[in-house]
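Sanity check

After download, print the first record. It should look like this:
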Amino acid sequence: MNGMTDDGSPDYYDVWLDQLTRISRPRFLELLLDRAGVTITVELAQCLVTVSLREPIGVLELAESLDQNHPKVSRSLARLEHLGLVERADSPADRRIKTASVTPAGRSVVEAVNRGRRRLLEEALADWNERDRTELARLTQRFTDSIAALIETDDTVT
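Expected structure tokens:
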């Protein structure tokens, strides 16, 4: 993996892997939370943001979404609940299941995280011209749509 094709241009596979690796690093996520002015841990922030995207959500579904085990997610939810960022309730579909939803205070934290993402993006693209920014957005959307279509049509993905 040298990042270049035979003609000297960047290899898209290597670039994609590099991107995934870099934005998954704890340091990147810590930088994001710093830009957001959010003081909870990366783990709790990831849990809170995922709850906000899928609420109301049960622990098992949340654990699967975060690729973590049930006890770990349960502890994270308990901490978020203690902080007043999520609330738990019985599921309307199955009272044996508790679901989590984001509170107004939690929503403020999620909004701060989103503002932090935008700040990081603006910093990263500060010296890019508008045409390059537009082209990046267009190509990234096209790529994302292609990946989503693969996932949706592949019945082996659960």
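If your output differs, re-run the checksum step. Summary of this record's structure: Residues 128-158 form one domain.
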